[in-house]
Design a protein that fits this description.
There is one protein chain. The protein has about 80 residues and is mainly beta. The protein has 1 helix and 5 strands. The strands form 2 sheets. The chain has a 3-stranded antiparallel beta sheet with strand order 3-4-5, with no helix packed on it. Strand 4 and strand 5 form a beta hairpin. It starts with 9 loop residues before the first helix and ends in a 6-residue tail after the last strand. The relative contact order is 0.17.
């Protein structure tokens, strides 16, 4: 087992950082209301099929460094 400099196991150090990271709700790019999806600041999502329960639309989005970009590429 690997041990960090402070004496804690490496696995414990990684899980502690995940719990202290700030998470935010993803907002719909159409109606700007919260969806049921949460992300962290370092989350990278490409071509994610996001559904908004308020405006009842499904769209593909890219989420990079907490910013939402509508996906413009069509994959066949």
């Amino acid at each position: 087992m690997r041990v960090a400099k402070n004496g804690a196991p490496k696995g414990a150090e990684c899980s502690a950082n995940e719990h202290t990271a700030k998470s935010v709700w993803v907002h719909c790019p159409v109606c700007h209301n919260k969806t049921k999806t949460k992300i962290y600041q370092d989350t990278l999502v490409l071509r994610f099929p996001m559904y908004c329960p308020k405006c009842k639309k499904e769209m593909r989005v890219d989420i990079i460094q907490g910013k939402i970009y509508p996906c413009t590429k069509v994959c066949k």
